[in-house]
Amino acid sequence: MHRIDRLDLLARILRDRPGIVAAELARELGVSQRSVFRDLAHLRERGYPVEADRGRGGGMRLHASWGLGKVLLSSEEALCTLLSLAVSEKLRFPMFAAEVSRARKKIVDAFPRAERRQIGPLRERILVGRPASAVVRSSFAEPNAVASRNMQVAFVREQVVRADYINEKAVRSTRRVEPHALLIMWPAWYLLAFDHLRGEPRTFRFDRFERVELEEVVFRPRPREIAQALLGDSCDAPAYPV
Amino acid sequence: MHRIDRLDLLARILRDRPGIVAAELARELGVSQRSVFRDLAHLRERGYPVEADRGRGGGMRLHASWGLGKVLLSSEEALCTLLSLAVSEKLRFPMFAAEVSRARKKIVDAFPRAERRQIGPLRERILVGRPASAVVRSSFAEPNAVASRNMQVAFVREQVVRADYINEKAVRSTRRVEPHALLIMWPAWYLLAFDHLRGEPRTFRFDRFERVELEEVVFRPRPREIAQALLGDSCDAPAYPV
DNA sequence: TCAACTATGTCACTTTCTGGCATATTTGAT
DNA sequence: ATCAAATATGCCAGAAAGTGACATAGTTGA
C-alpha cells in the first residue's frame, strides 16, 4: 500500500470511527504507532482538523464541522448538481442560502478554467414563472427520457438540436432549435429556444419533444433576450409576487 | 513540496491546460521529466484517466468525461446540496435524472457511516404540494433570515425548536415544535411540524416564524405520518397531476 | 498515584524517490 | 523516407523520505 492510500484510509477511519486510539489505528494500518502519529501530522498539515483527547478515555476524531471526505463527482454529475442548486436558488428554497452559494462556488472551481465561463452563467438560464394553469397541469406528462436527455446535453453544451415536436394540436414537426433557457411553470417545464424554422424565439413544452438529435453547431446563449422576447417581464423573480 | 501535493498540482494542471507536454510539466513542477512520467503513472494507478498523444503535436490531458477534481465540501455545504438535489428531484426536474441520483449517492457516501442513517431519509421529508392560491401568493414574504436559518439547522439535526409564530390573524404565539417535513406550495414554503403546545401536528408558513431557538431535545422524524395527518393524500407526487 | 492516552525526539535501517542517460515507439511534417 | 517531437520504459547510483524501536514528556480520568 502506498503512503497516499494509507493517508486516505486513515482519514476515512477517523471519520467513521471517532474516538479511535492510536494503538488501534497502528494495528489496523499495519504500521507502528510512531508512524501513525507521523501520518496524523501529515493530515493536519494538509488541513484535516484532527482532534485528539489525551489521557484515559481519550482518542482521535475529525472535527465535527468537517466530517466530510472529498466528493469525487464526474463532470456530468457536478453539472447536474449545479443545475439543481440553481433551481433551488431560483425557487427561493429557504434552506442554507449562504451554504448553497458557497457549495456552488466550490463546485464551479473544480471545473477546468476554460469551462467555468460556460458554467457560471448556467443558472441565469433557468427561469421560474408562475405555476401552470389547470389545463396544462392535467396534460403535462413525463418527458421522453432519451429526448430530454439529449436536450439536456445540448442545453449545457450550447449546441443546436434537430428535434421532433408535437404541438398542442398534436401536429408533429421537425425543427432546428437553440435551447437558450429553461422555464419552470410548475409542474411543467418549458424550453425557451430560438427556432431556426421560424427564425424567431419560441416556447416549447419539455414533454412534447420526441426525437432529439444534437448537431455540431454551437450557439451563444442569450437567455435574457430570448426570455424577454417570449415572456416580456412576466417571468422569474421580478414578476413575483404577482 | 511533498509528493502528494505535487500529484494534486499535476492533476490540476492537466485539467486546466489540456495538451500540455511532459517537458513543460517538468519545468513547472520543478522536477525531471522522468519524475513527471512516474507521477503520471501514479495518477493513472489511482484512477485518473490521463490520456496522451504521442508524436509531434501531442500532449497530455484528463479524459473529457472526467474533467473534474475533487470537490471538498463541508458537511453543511454537502447537506444543503443534498437538500437542493432532493427539491429538484421532487419537482421532477427533467435534467439528468440518472446523474442526480448518482451524485446524491456519492455525496451521501462521503458522510460518516453514523450520519448516513439521518441523511438518506432527508429527501423523504421534502414534499411538493400544488401551487399556492393567489391569496397566499400575494402575501408570501421573504422569511426572516436568522429564524429560518435556525429552523433549517433544527430540521436537519432533528431538534425541537422554541419559536415565535405569527398566524394569519397577526396574533403572535410562542411554540415548541418538532420540524418534521418541508412542504413547498410554490412560492410558499411550509413547515409540517408537531406542535407541543397543542399536542398535535400543525402546518406553519415559513415566512411567519420570527424568533427561533434550538433546544437540545431531539425527536424522531415521522414525515409520512405527520403529512398524512395534516394533508391527507393531497400532497407530494401521488397527488399529481390533479 | 496509576494507567491510558497523545505527542515528540533520536537514531539506525530500509524503502522510495530522483535525475540522468539510454532506448523504444508513435506520429505528423517536410 | 527521414526527421523531429512526443510519450513511454528500463536501469543505476545517490539523495531523500519513511520506518520501527526506544526514550521521554505531558495530560487526564479513575
Short structural description:
The structure is a homodimer of 242-residue chains. With 242 residues, chain A is of the alpha+beta class.
**Largest sheet geometry of chain A:** 6 strands, mixed
**Helix percent band of chain A:** 40-55%
Report the average pLDDT across residues of chain A.
82
Radius of gyration of chain A: 25 Å
General form of chain A: elongated
Note the run of SSEs of chain A as H and E: HHHEEHHHEHHEEEEEH
Fraction of residues in β-strands of chain A: 15-25%
Low-confidence stretches of chain A: 235-242
Q: Which oligomeric state applies?
A: homodimer
Annotation field: number of helices of chain A: 9
Q: What is the CA–CA distance across the termini of chain A?
A: 62 Å
SS elements, strand count of chain A = 8
Protein chain pair with the most extensive contact, residues per chain: A-B, 75 and 76 residues
Structural class of chain A: alpha+beta
Molecular structure report:
- The structure is a homodimer of 242-residue chains.
- In chain A, 38% of the residues are buried.
- In chain A, strands 3, 4, 5, 6, 7 and 8 form a six-stranded mixed β-sheet that branches.
- Chain A has helices at 3-16, 22-29, 33-45, 75-90, 97-110, 113-119, 134-139, 145-157, 223-231; strands at residues 50-53, 59-62, 126-128, 159-166, 172-185, 188-195, 200-205, 209-218.
- The longest helix of chain A has 16 residues, at 75-90.
- Mean pLDDT of chain A is 82; it is low at 235-242.
- The radius of gyration of chain A is 25 Å and the shape is elongated.
- The first copy, chain A, has 242 residues and is an alpha+beta fold.
- Chains A and B meet through helix 1, helix 4, helix 5, helix 6 and helix 7 of A and helix 1, helix 4, helix 5, helix 6 and helix 7 of B.
